[in-house]
Amino acid sequence: MMSLINKWREDYVIWHANRIKIPSFEARNIIRRNITFSGRVQNVGFRLEVYCLAQRLQLIGWVKNLADGSVEAELQGNESKINFLVNCMKSLKRASVQNITSIDLPLQDSEDSFVIRK
């Protein structure tokens, strides 16, 4: 029964992420940013939503749950696209983002995709 509920939740998260209208973005500088979202961000499909949006926005990096209940992501790509993703996650109704910390990082040439880390 639980796996069926998890499947429904995953399907809903993917459906929701895919219906967000992605605007056109001006070419901007490429950046890498470490972002930690805290609040009620685990067990609500938050990581999967970050992953789906990052894929659609053609960002690279990763996202993972942290032991303290927060979610950490490293995002690399167009600064406007990263800001758009962060704003989408802040406004997510099924989560409650209480705090966001953001640290600029050096670019990494070794990555070419976006992944969910366990």
Automatic annotation (TrEMBL):
Catalysed conversion reaction: an acyl phosphate + H2O = a carboxylate + phosphate + H(+)
InterPro entries: Acylphosphatase, Acylphosphatase-like_dom, Acylphosphatase-like_dom_sf, Acylphosphatase_CS
TM stretches of this protein: none
Lineage: superkingdom: Bacteria
Pfam family, one: Acylphosphatase
Enzyme kind, highest EC tier: hydrolase
Enzyme Commission number(s): 3.6.1.7
Keywords noted in UniProt: Hydrolase
Alphabetized SUPFAM superfamilies for the sequence: Acylphosphatase/BLUF domain-like
Domain annotation Acylphosphatase-like: ranges: 32-118
Region forming the signal peptide: none
Active site annotation, chain numbering: 47, 65
Keyword check for Hydrolase: yes
Keyword Hydrolase: yes
Family according to the record: Belongs to the acylphosphatase family.
Protein name: acylphosphatase
Species whose genome carries this gene: Lederbergia graminis
